[in-house]
């Protein structure tokens, strides 16, 4: 049952509408309340108190008679079964052409063409009252490229026989709204039905008339003929088509007694289906079990990745700790030691120790630093040796190891005295921390951050902004700098 608000509807039609629009038979639209109840489901509970095989009068009385409406006999005490029996009539009675041939003008005055401005005729519909159309719900399902549900795209053509040919008999209306059956399923096509409210009532004429909608209790015999109408060929000058179809094809198959062979075949089919269902259920259980196993393995993998990451960070921290007392002096060219001169001096009886000290790497580095005003206690230097160059373009570098961090930091603080030279003092960072430091210096050059430095092999940055905004942060991972790019 669909509730359709109709506030503001000004209907002047005298045409009967049947149970499609109201619970009472053939209720005139002007007499309807502000809500229309459209019975599209025809549930087993009947229609408002009567069984499906009973006809319900306007007074609420149930009449147990097959198709009592409009048969010339007043079966209802109030005569409502014989009121307004003019729907479904064809004012211009002519011989009809059936079997898929062209229909004559006025033969099907309730046939409506639903068209879209850019695409022309898209679907058919039937006029069931002066303001309402009945159509298929699938016509208004959106595709990837076309929004069929937009009522502004649709226009209804009534009284039309030839597509794209608008004569004086043709009435056009915009669509105000589309009401789909609440149980419509676009995948199974169940309840494929929709109501369309026109923007304004249509005036009934010889070419425009509503079709009758049978009461829920109406029955059709297996020998009844039905007509299917519409524009079967979507092309220019396409004419409305009509075809005679027996109810055996549309209302269900003719019932014939089942043979023993039929029953055996049905039993075999049911057994096959039962086995297939059991197989599918078993496979589904296996799949669900595998899915659960995969989920558990992924969880274990995630936990192991966390452990591995933690261990890798621990190893990196330990490696960095072994370099905590080191300084890298880069950009200073070191002369090779003159061993030949030292040996000849020894052979002549001279002391060659001074020569070796003056020519050592440590002596060359400390002599240069002292020449720049840097104070350094040579007794605190535990080791000093050049680093191998990976390629010719690398700057020369020397590693110096101090007895403790205090002496190392004292030397680093004096590094500003080297400003204007090509020599730099830096902490001995691991590759991971070195990458972080290089990226931080790049961000400073780009003015994305205010400054950067290292202390005890930790990388610090200072953000831009006011004193309140210029926070100092420790950067432990390279991706931590992504927020400041």
UniProtKB/TrEMBL annotation:
UniProt keyword Transferase, yes or no: no
- Domain named Peptidase S1: which ranges? 97-348
Q: Which UniProt keywords apply?
A: Coiled coil, Disulfide bond, Hydrolase, Protease, Serine protease
Against InterPro entries, the record matches this protein to: LDL_receptor-like_sf, LDrepeatLR_classA_rpt, Peptidase_S1_PA, Peptidase_S1_PA_chymotrypsin, Peptidase_S1A, Trypsin_dom, TRYPSIN_HIS
Which GO MF term does the entry hold, naming one? serine-type endopeptidase activity
Q: Which cysteines are joined by disulfide bonds?
A: 50-62, 70-85
Entry keyword annotation includes Transmembrane: no
The protein, known as: Peptidase S1 domain-containing protein
Q: Which organism is it from?
A: Conger conger
